[in-house]
């Protein structure tokens, strides 16, 4: 069956030359972006109840842009002036670059991992005497605490924001040829919104092993997956599938 419509279960990228815009134009398909989950910030009261005193930490581990936003939001709500001496350990270049929204980059101590959390660990290991704060969501990948415990540093997790399931009731009568998921939370949202969801002719695209696992556990047939050696990005995986099925 041909692919004409695609639903991406995430917000639309805020860039001019998005690879999805290119895919839409090249393959003559319609792509909609509707977040299946969204983030809500914890209040400063919630953070205080976790017995977190920002002044006690000398380093911060940032795994996402959300972590950056909500750390500085909480600091402002608590009227805490973030010291220039704070060390920032960023999981990826994208997270480190995003820090510039809040700090003068060249005047701060910033350490950048390659992409995955385990790749950041050697940098953290070099500063074992620091007291680390990990601002996170209520949903945390098990590999993160596991790796921090393994390296033996003094670290504390703070839940600064929460992942919340979005209301998708407006999609009840809407059909898409392909629905794309990037996290187990997105799959969970689908079934919480539509407990009787039947896949029928909808193709399911997933990114990452944990999302594939969640899809299969919910009885979904996975038709498109990334990353693979051939298709490292979701747009590449979608393009390959569309080319194969739309030429028939």
What order do the helices and strands come in, and which of them pair?
Elements: E1 5-8, H1 19-27, E2 30-33, E3 37-41, H2 44-49, E4 59-62, H3 65-77, E5 87-90, H4 93-98, E6 109-112, H5 121-125, E7 131-137, H6 143-151, E8 154-165, E9 178-181, H7 184-193, E10 203-207, H8 209-217, E11 222-226, H9 234-246
Parallel strand pairs: 1-2, 1-9, 4-5, 4-7, 5-6, 7-8, 9-10, 10-11
Antiparallel strand pairs: 3-8
Helix pairs in contact: 1-9, 7-8
The first-level CATH class name of the largest domain: Alpha Beta
Low-confidence stretches: none
Give a quick account of the main beta sheet: strands, pairing sense, barrel closure.
6 strands, mixed
The average pLDDT is 93
**Rg for CA atoms:** 20 Å
Instruction: Please give the share of residues in helix.
Output: 25-40%
The helix/strand order is: EHEEHEHEHEHEHEEHEHEH
Strand order of the largest sheet: 3-8-7-4-5-6
Termini Cα gap: 8 Å
Envelope shape: elongated
CATH topology of the largest domain: Rossmann fold
Classify the secondary structure makeup into a structural class: alpha/beta
Proportion of beta-strand residues:
15-25%
Number of domains: 2
Secondary structure tally, helices: 9
For the secondary structure, the number of strands is 11
Give the CATH architecture of the largest domain: 3-Layer(aba) Sandwich
């Amino acid at each position: 069956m041909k692919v004409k419509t695609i639903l991406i279960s995430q917000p639309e990228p805020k860039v001019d030359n998005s690879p999805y815009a290119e895919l839409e134009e090249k393959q003559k398909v319609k792509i909609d972006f509707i977040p299946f989950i969204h983030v809500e910030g914890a209040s400063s009261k919630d953070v205080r109840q976790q017995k977190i005193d920002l002044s006690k930490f000398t380093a911060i581990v940032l795994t996402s842009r959300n972590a950056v936003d909500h750390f500085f939001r909480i600091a402002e709500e608590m009227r805490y002036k973030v010291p220039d001496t704070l060390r920032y350990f960023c999981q990826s270049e994208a997270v480190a670059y995003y820090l510039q929204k809040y700090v003068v980059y060249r005047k701060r101590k910033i350490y950048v991992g390659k992409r995955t959390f385990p790749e950041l660990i050697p940098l953290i290991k070099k500063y074992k005497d620091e007291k680390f704060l990990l601002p996170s969501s209520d949903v945390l990948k098990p590999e993160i605490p596991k790796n921090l415990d393994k390296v033996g540093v003094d670290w504390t997790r703070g839940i600064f924001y929460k992942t919340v399931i979005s209301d998708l009731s407006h999609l009840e009568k809407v059909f898409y040829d392909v629905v794309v998921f990037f996290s187990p939370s997105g799959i969970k949202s689908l079934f919480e919104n539509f407990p009787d969801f039947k896949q029928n002719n909808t193709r399911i695209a997933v990114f990452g092993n944990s999302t594939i696992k969640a899809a299969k556990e919910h009885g979904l047939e996975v038709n498109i997956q990334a990353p693979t050696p051939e298709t490292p990005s979701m747009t590449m995986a979608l393009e390959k599938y569309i080319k194969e099925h739309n030429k028939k």
